[in-house]
């Protein structure tokens, strides 16, 4: 039976959902490259959030009917249906619990998302800048709706933690600026013929963020003082499902984090001995590298070097371990805008590749960048990490659905692939330099520590007897920060930023290591099934062309490739 407009199969329902979502959420539209979105911002009020939830409920009803149609058993339709149901169910669980009424954290809440969308909004023509001016003028109404949601959360006793509030107030302070705001600086790059319009619009946006800062500082912060920063088991489990696409056995995952901690510590000690013989800890060797290791001077020099690193990875991997389309081979190294989080990040290409995939390097106060800390990070953020997966999803979106390649992304799937990509480069011999390899191991250790402290502090679990740190005690955020600081080569401000991130995004940080485990298990199951006939290049390309899946579905599908 052929598909008709009146009886669409799951992939068409997924894309119809995406189109309707873009109408409600222009931020998603801009990431997709939808021109009509570039001048608008979403309604973040309680009513606007309910509109998004209502769309999810209606879509689930349509999906249930579609799965009864002939053709729905097709593998591509089945995978899309499974993802769509899981994602919308997880979204509704979060919405129905009122999480949108306390959406405030240091990395991925509305203030950061609204500011960040301007960095990827097209700005090549006068028409582009006219749309930017319109979007800047929309900031006050958008933030008014957001503040109404936070106020409703206060009324219901659904609040963000004090650490999140204090950190966001500091971020808003930096964006508003004492002399010139981030928005004024951003608008200054626009064309002269729109100078007055852009300056006026930037002032409106700045004033709206200033008002939000003042309200958070003077009204919201006092109201949440003394409330817990941790999520607790029920709320944590709900977010674990949202970020990982599966219901995890949290105690088993916590034990796995500890097993990886001990394995990585042994490897780090061996590598540290090559760098600084007799070092008391691996991090003493890393501190030695901070002073005496390879460095790049200046953020632009670091950006250029990272571009070269990604270009080299594409040249050496394409045709040997991957088969890459020409448009997937394009990736840009960028410097992150001022006021961003301390960690590097990646942004996916637009659906037509007019905006390429981009990695973003935060500038540091010292303007000096140790190479040991960059190599595996850019294998993670760029190639073969986030860029190869997310650009490949975009490339094959016509074979999947646009939803599977974009808005349906499961965090742990993407982060798991990126961490697997770091390990793959180690397996392929790209990390033989002791400096590069200890940096890779330190990055892996950070992801193992995340599993331990994210689960441990949100659930207040006991620290095991074989721990080198406070055995028998129960985790608190204070202990988590101390443990992270002792077992990381990252600077103090990074550790502090990360801890606040884990508290504000419960369940997200564990997806890196647990996602990597799903990718490794899937590969080993496929290898066992094929024996000597296992073709890693073919498997990688098939795996990267699956589109998004939750961790339970991902492991099952990878084993079948």
UniProtKB/TrEMBL annotation:
Organism this protein belongs to: Streptomyces zingiberis
Pfam family, one: DUF885
InterPro entries named among the record's database cross-references: DUF885
Taxonomic superkingdom: Bacteria
Phylogenetic placement of the source organism: Bacteria, Bacillati, Actinomycetota, Actinomycetes, Kitasatosporales
Protein name: DUF885 domain-containing protein
């Amino acid at each position: 039976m052929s598909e008709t407009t009146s009886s669409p199969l799951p992939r068409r329902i997924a894309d119809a959902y995406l189109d309707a979502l873009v109408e409600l959420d222009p931020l998603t539209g801009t990431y997709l490259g939808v021109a009509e979105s570039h001048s608008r911002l979403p309604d973040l009020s309680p009513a606007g959030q309910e509109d998004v939830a209502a769309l999810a409920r209606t879509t689930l009803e349509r999906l249930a009917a579609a799965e009864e149609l002939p053709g729905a058993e097709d593998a591509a339709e089945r995978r899309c249906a499974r993802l769509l149901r899981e994602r919308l169910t997880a979204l509704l669980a979060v919405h129905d619990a009122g999480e949108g009424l306390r959406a405030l954290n240091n990395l991925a809440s509305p203030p950061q998302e609204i500011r960040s969308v301007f960095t990827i909004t097209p700005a090549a023509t006068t028409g582009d800048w006219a749309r930017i001016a319109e979007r800047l003028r929309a900031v006050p109404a958008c933030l008014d709706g957001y503040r109404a949601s936070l106020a409703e959360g206060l009324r219901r006793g659904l609040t963000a933690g004090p650490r999140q509030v204090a950190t966001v107030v500091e971020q808003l302070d930096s964006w508003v600026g004492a002399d010139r705001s981030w928005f004024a600086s951003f608008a200054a790059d626009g064309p002269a013929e729109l100078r007055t319009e852009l300056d006026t619009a930037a002032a409106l946006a700045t004033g709206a963020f200033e008002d939000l800062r003042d309200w958070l500082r003077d009204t919201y912060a006092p109201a949440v003082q003394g409330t817990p920063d941790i999520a607790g088991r029920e709320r944590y489990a709900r977010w674990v499902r949202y970020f990982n696409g599966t219901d995890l056995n949290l105690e088993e995952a916590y034990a796995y984090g500890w097993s990886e901690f001990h394995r990585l510590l042994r490897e780090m000690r061996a590598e540290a001995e090559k760098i600084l013989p007799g070092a008391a800890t691996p991090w003493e060797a890393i501190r030695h590298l901070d002073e005496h290791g390879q460095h790049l001077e200046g953020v632009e020099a670091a950006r250029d070097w990272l571009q070269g690193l990604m270009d080299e990875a594409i040249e050496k991997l394409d045709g040997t371990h991957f088969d890459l389309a020409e448009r997937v081979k394009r990736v840009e190294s960028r410097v992150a805008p001022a006021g961003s989080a301390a960690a590097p990040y990646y942004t996916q290409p637009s659906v037509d590749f007019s905006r390429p995939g981009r990695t973003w390097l935060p500038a540091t106060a010292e303007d000096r960048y140790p190479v040991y800390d960059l190599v595996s990070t850019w294998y993670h953020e760029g190639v073969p990490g986030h860029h190869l997966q997310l650009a490949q999803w975009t490339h094959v979106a016509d074979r999947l659905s646009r939803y599977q390649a974009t808005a349906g992304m499961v965090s742990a799937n993407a982060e798991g692939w990126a961490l697997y990509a770091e390990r793959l480069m180690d397996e392929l011999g790209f990390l033989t330099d002791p400096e590069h390899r200890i940096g890779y191991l330190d990055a892996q250790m950070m992801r193992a520590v995340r599993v331990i402290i994210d689960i441990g502090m949100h659930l207040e679990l006991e620290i095991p007897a074989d721990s080198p740190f406070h055995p028998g005690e129960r985790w608190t955020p204070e202990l988590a920060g101390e443990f992270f600081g002792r077992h990381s080569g990252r600077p103090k401000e990074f550790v502090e930023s990360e801890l606040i991130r884990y508290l504000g995004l419960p369940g997200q940080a564990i997806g890196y290591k647990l996602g990597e485990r799903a990718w490794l298990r899937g590969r080993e199951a496929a290898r066992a099934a094929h024996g000597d006939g296992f073709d890693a290049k073919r498997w990688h390309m098939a795996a990267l062309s699956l589109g998004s899946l939750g961790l339970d579905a991902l492991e099952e599908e990878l084993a079948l490739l």
